[in-house]
Amino acid sequence: MERLVLKIVVAVLVLFGAKAWASEGGAGEGGASDWVTNDTGKIRLIAATTALGDARSVKLGLHFQLAPGWKIYWRTPGDAGYPPKMNWTGSVNLGPPNVSWPAPKRFQLAGLQNHGYTGEVVLPLDAPVTQPGQAAQAMVAVDYLACAQICVPQEAKLILDLPAGPAQPSAFVHDISRFTALVPGDGARHGVSVDKLEAVGSGDQSFLRLTISASEPLIHPDMFIEPADVASFEAPRVALSKDGRRATLESPVVQGTVQRALAEGPLTITLADGSRSLEATLTPVIGTGAAMAEPAPTDALAGMLLVALLGGLILNLMPCVLPVLSIKVLGALSHGGAERGHVRAAFLASATGIVASFLALAGAAVMVKSAGQAVGWGIQFQQPMFLAVMITLLLLFAVNLWGWFEIRLPAAFMSVGSGGIAHHTLLGHFLSGAFATLLATPCSAPFLGTAVGFALARGPGEIMAIFAALGMGMALPYLAMAAWPDLARRLPKPGAWMVTVRKIMAAALAATALWLGSILATQTGLLGVATQGTKTDIAWTAFDQTALAQAVAGGTVVFVDVTADWCITCKVNKAAVVERGEIAKRLTTGAVLPMRADWTKPDDGIARYLASFNRYGIPFNAVYGPGAPDGIALSELLSEAEVLAALDKAAGDKAAAR
Questions:
Q1: Which residues pair with 118 in a beta bridge?
Q2: Strand ranges for 227-376 from DSSP E
Q3: What is the CA radius of gyration of the chain?
Q4: Please, which residues have CB within 8 angstroms of residue 298's CB and are 6 or more apart in sequence?
């Protein structure tokens, strides 16, 4: 009864709220209509191309920018409200488009559960062209409901001219692509799948239980159930496994019964978890058991802290850390024969430097994310100033190890460069740990990407906790030496033989500086274009989401490689897997379209593309095709077997024929 009264109240607010009759939006230019603005926000129509070309359909987008506190509704709005309605009468050379709905958010209005969108949203549209090759005009009357504390119906008439001529990507193609990536598919793109849907109980005590699995840890999964006209359900209770890769969601029935809903046919389940989603039409099986108790909210975080710890430890073995070994090796050798107390203090100081630097990175990530900017692992290497500072430090340390001159001030920094041989200050050991962390950040590693993706999709507290665990993992070898200092004391005592070691390590640091210098030259335009290592016969196509979608629609298998000059793991993947053997053959013979996204410099479009897979660092590779239109995300460290399996799956029937 209470919910019925609340619905009536909302209906009254809608009927008697001030109805806004918005002015007509003009035809606009360059792929967008004029904005139509009202007190609740603004709306316009955008196109992915500036002209139609010979296409039989055109990708459009209904672009909302809502004022703070205002919301609009999904196709199934929940307990109250209605979704945007579109009337395309008057359009020229265009048929009514197919509307795609990005995964919604759940919010409450007057105690009711509703589903919709806040802030900015684009509803992707695919409109058929009646006469390809000729100009068109899109004309749409939009009727939508915007709600805050009250609900206000809005209307807008939008007009967009689409001229004839070659189809070039418009300035709005990324906006449409960004929200198209949020439209639920079969889950393969995000590594999410449904294990089982069960109907449990009877009458008003019944509920639906959904069990899902994911290749990357789940964060805050939510479930939306359709049709809603025969039964409605509460927000689900969620229980996550320790590692976050399995979840059980239970939604109790509020009105109607599960049995009544099943009598109408299969149910459509939409699962949303941050930028990941899936949609499936399922017929539940009969399940048993009581409803779950409230899950422990810290289970997923506790499991992810262990993943982060392991990822940080493995980071010590990644190729980008090899240049840093000069600092580590010299630091360890300098302790040969030293007293236990000194050895323990030195390694603890280095470990503290590592953890402190990870916390500093976490703080920077929180600030960048709070400012609404794209954030990812290793993005500081996109900044020329950071590269210049790192190059300067590396060269100073290298020439100091070669003995060309002595760095007298400050002494702490000399001890960093000399591995602690000349000076044994704790500050120097602390800075050596911090410096090692900064040089290690271009690498991604197994478990590292999982932990970083989990953290950056959550709040400041989780980000700080996950990064602290990553730092502890990378510092574990130092902590082990601090716990058992006799290990260091058994190393050979320093002597004349270390002069040769110093020169070898100096060469490693100088080579690292030259590598960073080439990246800096690329970013500042001195080299003109980014270099991607040794030339091969693979004809890489520049990454473009519109071209990607068109290629897949035409039955082409596409291999996407997101890389950067500063990403050493990317180069290892290319040399060991991508540019050799059967994979290179497929990429060079036309069997697969190779597409590369260069993230050497900041690029918000690439950052958003990564985030659509819940990834925030590189390397990243994905495979698309008729059998995998939403893409298959691959591991950070590639293997030939994994890539070939993904290519065959994406090819679908073509692979079976081969």
A1: 71
A2: 232-233, 237-240, 246-255, 267-273, 276-282, 285-287
A3: 28
A4: none
What is the rounded average pLDDT of the residues 23-27? 50
118-132, 248-262, 366-380, 463-477: range with highest mean pLDDT: 118-132
597 CB neighbour count, 10 Å cutoff: 21
Look at residue 93 in the predicted model and tell me its pLDDT: 96
CATH number at residue 242: 2.60.40.10
Tokens 């990822």 belong to residue = 311
Rounded Cα distance between 426 and 63, Å, is 56
Q: Which of 183, 380, 319, 369 is nearest to 636 (CA)?
A: 319
Q: What is the residue type of 305?
A: L
209 within a domain of the structure (yes/no): yes
Task: Give ∠ CA 133-135-141 in degrees, rounded to 5.
Answer: 130
Q: What is the mean pLDDT of residues 443-468?
A: 73
Q: Do 430 and 461 lie in a common domain?
A: yes
Among 618, 601, 571, smallest CA distance to 386 is for 601
pTM score > 0.70 for this model?
no
Give the Å distances, CA to CA, from 298 to 219, 236, 271, 362, 471.
11, 17, 21, 20, 20
CB atoms < 10 A from the CB of 535, how many? Answer: 8
Q: Give 103-171 as a DSSP string.
A: PPEEEEETTEEEEEEESEEEEEEEEEBSSTTS-EEEEEEEEEEEESSSEEEEEEEEEEEE-SS---B-T
Beta carbons within 8 Å of 592's beta carbon, 6+ residues apart? 556, 557, 558, 559, 586, 647
User: Does 242 lie in the same domain as 144?
Assistant: no
Residues 197 and 238 in one domain: yes
CA-wise closest residue to 95 among 86, 106, 85: 86
In the predicted model, is pLDDT for residue 318 greater than 90? Answer: no
Q: Which residues contact 81 (CB under 8 A, 6 or more apart)?
A: 10, 14, 73, 109, 114, 116, 145, 147, 151
